[in-house]
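Hi there, hope your week has been kind to you so far. It would help a lot if you went through both lines with me. No rush at all, and the record is pasted right below:

***
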Amino acid sequence: MKTVPEEWAMVMMVMAMMSVVVVMMMMRRMTARNEWAACERRTGLYDDDQAQKGREQLAEHE
């Protein structure tokens, strides 16, 4: 019964690596979202009147 602990260790290692990767991806996504929001605020791309124009254009296309 020597293979069971080795398999268990392999499973634990894989799960730990997956959790680390998931955490890194979540952190990267959060930082990217914050940077994008800051860029929107700085450039003023998405003001309310701009959004209204976009909605009107969408309505025209439909």
